[in-house]
């Protein structure tokens, strides 16, 4: 039976995490995502599923609690907003290096620095290009609705365990704060001890007679071994590029122009497409759902069809670089964005399309 | 240290000189207003030039402080005010550096920097606004929230043991610790003046009421009917007496502090401890910092003010020593100090 609810994005990801069999959440308050932890605390999941919710002393503490929890083969997660996500980067790099699964949610606000508590998309580089040190990638999911906030909790855990890699849900203040109808998935039980033993042999569940010693680490002082380890990571990222690209196309069949946008910018751009079409402009929208792996192939294909691409982001222009790389600069690619907490209107997007792509 | 003195104002400054033109955005009735007023009162008394005060804060309601004081200010990073202040003071020792911070800012996310600034004993004055809650982010529990409190993130009551800031500060080898309440601006002003005079890191904890998210959290201490019995106002060299008639006092018995009534069971004023804020040994100061109602009154005023070399002084001494003992006395010495060649 369908279970429908009206929820904020922040509440939806929290509720969906409980239902996805999450074992532990570790967080620290920050606007505009404090509702994730507050919702979890009110649900008291320790009484129902046994999930633990802990308010840490900082974001650094929270991500390292995740590091610890993940090493036990458990489904663990944290959430924050931009300044707090910056603090987590050290832990994220180590978790990626040690090949542990976890879920991280970023409800982005404008930066740099303390910036603003209003929505932005200025953490794209940090999310997709590293953020912390070393050669690693996160699998990045970009929800454009409250429904996807909920759906990506379960999907995020699934992918994290599939690749033994941190998964990041890159949301923003609009998606986190707005209320929409959500269809919730039924409850999935938490992993049992037996399942952990069977499915995650790398996990710290105790040294038994049938098991060798296992040390969770991201260190190898032997550079040849370390190179081999990083090559192994690269193979994982390659596999993600082959198997996990997710995107959505809207009115691209006959499109002469294309808008590329993710998250709340995609919602705005979808309206812009309708407005432009009413004016007789044949424009379509490609919405990347995974930002890493980036939908390079569908973009390259569309580049043979359309005359120009407008990349719309609430930033100075970050994803636009990946769009240019995907189309190998064969056609015109421009960026349009508002930033510092300002959300562009669909009309502004249409005007930018006309000026920068069609007229330019 | 002659080198590191803060320049004094040539004209007499008043409270008005320190009030900024910014609109104060704290909630009406918030305890922060009284703290601001005390600071504006005390700054002109300290006598430094306005330009030589620097107010550093982290992030929180309390950390909005620098906007409201007409001096140089620094609204820095959540939890990092102690590190930023250290940088300011070390780079420019001629400033009188004041830090405004909250219980979340300094005891949760900033706990590490907070204990280390104290351990180094850098000459900075810290005002710790303790409202036992995260105000700015709308009411989650903090490391000083009393156990069992209901907050946004503890709907069934917190299960965490709170810090007593005084205990933490003295544990970190604090040389100055004082405690005030937002309901007593006169005492707050006196304490801050003493903090300013102290060489080294001075921490003033101010019990502050957040009317919105933790209203009356300090009511045990501040309410009209309880305050006389629940507050001990410490004065150096004076017996630790309290109560409306000042007929109660603190004595030491079996290595423990005890509240007693004078005249009862043969107790006289001679049994009552006399406060010595300057004593080096922190033992009694720690016991005083830990006192809390209902069995003991809370200690207010300057609890500890001990003389220890400051980081600033020691750095200066190092520089002086290096200057006196270095073979390099002038530019020529310097140029000829390493490998030198004569080009023919
Ligand atoms: C890195 C980071 N994490 C979280 C926040 C959000 N945040 C701002 S202030 C604050 C706590 C404020 O509490 P406190 O320090 O007690 O100050 P008060 O508002 O009570 O005066 C938090 C969690 C932030 N700004 N930066
Ligand atoms: S929320 Fe609380 S601490 Fe912040 S300004 Fe309002 S009353 Fe003061
Ligand atoms: Mg506080």
Q: What characteristics describe this protein?
A:
heterodimer; A: alpha/beta; Rossmann fold; 2 domains; 7-stranded mixed sheet; 5-stranded mixed sheet; 14 strands; 43% helix; globular; B: 344 residues; 8-stranded mixed sheet; 3-stranded antiparallel sheet; 12 helices; 30% helix; binds thiamine diphosphate; binds iron/sulfur cluster; binds magnesium ion
Structure description:
The complex is a heterodimer of chains A (360) and B (344). By secondary structure, chain A is α/β, with parallel strands linked by helices. Chain A has 15 helices and 14 strands. In chain A, the strands form 3 sheets. Chain A has a 7-stranded mixed sheet with strand order 3-2-4-5-7-6-12, sandwiched between helices. A 5-stranded mixed sheet of chain A has the order 9-11-10-13-14, with helices on both faces. Chain A has a two-stranded antiparallel ribbon with strand order 1-8. In chain A, β10, α12 (263-278) and β11 form a beta-alpha-beta unit. In chain A, α1 packs across α2, α4 runs parallel beside α6 and α12 crosses α15. The longest helix of chain A has 21 residues, at 223-243. Chain A is globular. Chain B is an alpha/beta fold. Helices cover 30% and strands 17% of the residues of chain B. Chain B has helices at residues 32-46, 65-68, 81-91, 103-109, 111-120, 165-171, 185-197, 219-222, 227-230, 283-290, 311-325, 331-335; strands at residues 53-57, 72-75, 96-102, 124-130, 176-181, 202-207, 231-233, 241-242, 248-253, 256-261, 298-305. In chain B, β9 and β10 (256-261) form a beta hairpin. The longest helix of chain B is centred in the N-terminal third of the chain and has 15 residues, at 32-46. Classes of the chains: A alpha/beta (360), B alpha/beta (344). The A-B interface holds A 28-31, 34, 37-38, 41-42, 44, 55, 57-60, 83, 113-114 and B 59, 75, 77-79, 108-109, 111, 134, 137-138, 140-141, 143, 152-156. Thiamine diphosphate sits between chains B (59-62, 78, 102-105, 129, 131, 133-137, 142) and A (28-30, 59, 83-84, 87). The site of magnesium ion has 9 residues of chain B, from α4.
